[in-house]
Amino acid sequence: MSYPIDVIDKFGCDALRFTLATMSTPGRDIKLATSRIEGNRNFVTKLWNATRFCEMNGCAPSDQFNPVQVNQTVNQWIIGETKQTADKIAALLDDYRFDLASSAAYEFVWNTFCDWYLEFTKPIIAGEDQAAKTETQATTAWVLGQILHLLHPFMPFITEEIWAEFTGNTNMLITAPWPVIKANAKAAQDEMNWLVRAISSIRTVRAELNVPAGAQIPLQVKGASDATKEKLAHHNAIIVRLARLSGITHTEIVGKGSAQTILDEATLILPLAEIIDINQESARLKKESEKLAAEIQKIEAKLGNKDFVDRAPPEIIEEQRTRKADFEAMIAKLESAQKSLAG
């Protein structure tokens, strides 16, 4: 590892600070890897890109914005998620759990805000409903402002720079009070988190079975309740777009060569017989499972060797146990994918 100043010159001070925060688990010796710092530099870039997206789409801060008065479900959802995250990070910082606090911030910014909320709201911002568009632009700007507050303890330099540029506020962020957010958005959070799970379930099946990214597949739904049918109909367009589907229909029959996954009481079915070679894909999944099982056997042999356990440093033992657990989780996913191929 280079000197800290060399790391800062290469990756930036905020990326180094954030990495140290995420790795500061009590009782753990930090084994700093350049790849971890580089990954968090990408996180800084993600924050920059989100800011640029907001600026390019007319999402400007407004003193008139009141988070408890929004009407769009997707905006109620992100406000509820922002409050939940802010409260969680505040409690963790009070307990000096900088690792968990920074990880919670990362998860919210990268996944909830950038990967989901911004994708969900693109059609609204590009749409003809001016009231919904104006509300969404204001909500997006407000959430970005809260994000800068939440990240400031870990990334003071980038957040101050974006704060000054994006808000035009001459008061420094470091002097601003911690966000205290009022929101009552449980219904919206339940609905939108269901939507996230639905799209994620379909994407997972596609990834596990090597479905070509450009292939648009029909989704068939079996055993859906009336409530699920209503949600599927209401969010049809966004599910089709983000899960790369050709459409959604309901059925009581599972055709041969179909992949299946469960979403609450409903079964999501993807007919893949004409998209991939089912036998070849099943054989690939089996081969991958066997390779991982062989690796697990090697690790178990090491951990079962008393000389190795007595002489190896504790971190090496822990590393082997972690690898074993990771391989077991991967095998479970591969076996689930195999089972999902019906017929």
How do the SSEs run, as a string of H and E? HHHHHHHHEHHEEEHHH
CATH superfamily of the largest domain: Isoleucyl-tRNA Synthetase, Domain 1
Q: Architecture of the largest domain in CATH? A: Orthogonal Bundle
Low-confidence stretches: none
Name of the CATH first level of the largest domain: Mainly Alpha
Approximate strand percentage: 5-15%
Q: Based on Cα principal axes, name the global outline.
A: flat
Number of domains: 3
Side-by-side strand order of the widest sheet? 2-1-4-3
Q: Would you give an account of this structure?
A:
With 343 residues, the protein is α+β, with helices and mostly antiparallel strands. It folds into 3 domains: 181 residues, Isoleucyl-tRNA Synthetase, Domain 1; 84 residues; 63 residues, Helix Hairpins, CATH 1.10.287. It is 65% helix and 7% strand. It has a 4-stranded mixed sheet. Strand 3 and strand 4 form a beta hairpin. Helix 11 runs antiparallel to helix 13. The chain is flat and about 60 Å long. The model has no long low-confidence stretch (mean pLDDT 89).
Summarize the structure.
This protein is an alpha+beta fold.
Features:
single chain, 343 residues, alpha+beta, Isoleucyl-tRNA Synthetase, Domain 1, Helix Hairpins, 3 domains, four-stranded mixed β-sheet, 7% strand, flat
Topology:
Layout: H1 4-11, H2 13-22, H3 34-56, H4 73-94, H5 98-125, H6 130-151, H7 156-167, H8 186-208, E1 217-222, H9 226-234, H10 236-242, E2 245-250, E3 258-263, E4 266-271, H11 278-303, H12 306-311, H13 314-340
Parallel strand pairs: 1-2
Antiparallel strand pairs: 1-4, 3-4
Helix pairs in contact: 1-2, 2-3, 2-5, 3-5, 4-5, 4-6, 4-8, 5-6, 6-7, 11-13
